[in-house]
């Protein structure tokens, strides 16, 4: 199957994947863009999982103050080398994440950062809500797990939908950049301040 340069460029813009990976994904998916994106994301996740064990000692601090000077946010985004820290794509990622923090006010970076007492409190609330339901315990447990996942998607940065593209989460956005830049990337700290 013939793969056009335009199709490659479009997918590169959407995924940040390498040209050869994009070409291979387009061939495997018979030119189906959606299927190619899915393939690339799966490959990116595999690459990212291998890289997530690596230490991240370099990076940047990115700050944002909203035009009305009433909301501000700051993040520390880490990578493995100063070369990547100076990369435009890495800096753009940091800027998008700091905007996400300002816009959606996550309380934590990831679910593992949520204190156990907060999780237990949420579970108690869900159990109270479900007391009147006449469902088996295993079904209620699944409902509670689903409600916890929804809670994490609201309060944890990496589980939130990316405000510029609701089809992906911040975690998936970072994973795609790990694949594109070839280094582990981690959000180390976030801060958001608001007058109101």
Radius of gyration: 20 Å
What would CATH call the class of the largest domain? Answer: Alpha Beta
What is the count of structural domains? Answer: 3
Which regions contain 5 or more consecutive residues with pLDDT less than 50?
none
Work out the helicity level. 40-55%
Distance between the termini: 57 Å
Report the count of strand segments. 5
Mean pLDDT: 86
Structural classification? alpha+beta
The major sheet is characterized as: 3 strands, antiparallel
Strand order of the largest sheet: 1-2-5
Name the CATH superfamily classification of the largest domain: Elongation factor Ts, dimerisation domain
InterPro entries: EF-Ts_dimer_sf (IPR036402), Transl_elong_EFTs/EF1B (IPR001816), Transl_elong_EFTs/EF1B_dimer (IPR014039), Transl_elong_Ts_CS (IPR018101), UBA-like_sf (IPR009060)
Function: Associates with the EF-Tu.GDP complex and induces the exchange of GDP to GTP. It remains bound to the aminoacyl-tRNA.EF-Tu.GTP complex up to the GTP hydrolysis stage on the ribosome.
GO molecular function: translation elongation factor activity
GO cellular component, one term: cytoplasm
């Amino acid at each position: 199957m013939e793969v056009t340069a335009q199709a490659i460029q479009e997918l590169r813009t959407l995924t940040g994947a390498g040209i050869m990976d994009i070409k291979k994904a387009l061939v495997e998916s018979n030119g189906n863009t959606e299927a190619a994106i899915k393939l690339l994301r799966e490959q990116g996740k595999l690459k990212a999982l291998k890289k997530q064990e690596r230490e991240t000692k370099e990076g940047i601090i990115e700050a944002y103050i909203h035009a009305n000077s009433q909301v501000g946010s700051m993040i520390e985004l880490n990578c493995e080398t100063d070369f990547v820290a100076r990369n435009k794509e890495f800096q753009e990622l940091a800027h998008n994440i700091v905007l996400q923090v300002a816009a959606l006010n996550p309380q934590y970076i990831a679910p593992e950062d949520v204190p156990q007492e907060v999780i237990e409190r949420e579970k108690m609330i869900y159990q109270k809500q479900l007391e009147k339901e006449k469902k088996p315990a295993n079904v209620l447990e699944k409902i509670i797990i689903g409600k916890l996942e929804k809670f994490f998607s609201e309060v944890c940065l990496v589980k939130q939908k990316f405000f510029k593209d609701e089809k992906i989460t911040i975690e998936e956005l970072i994973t795609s950049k790990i694949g594109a830049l070839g280094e582990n990337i981690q959000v180390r700290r976030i801060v958001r301040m608001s007058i109101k």
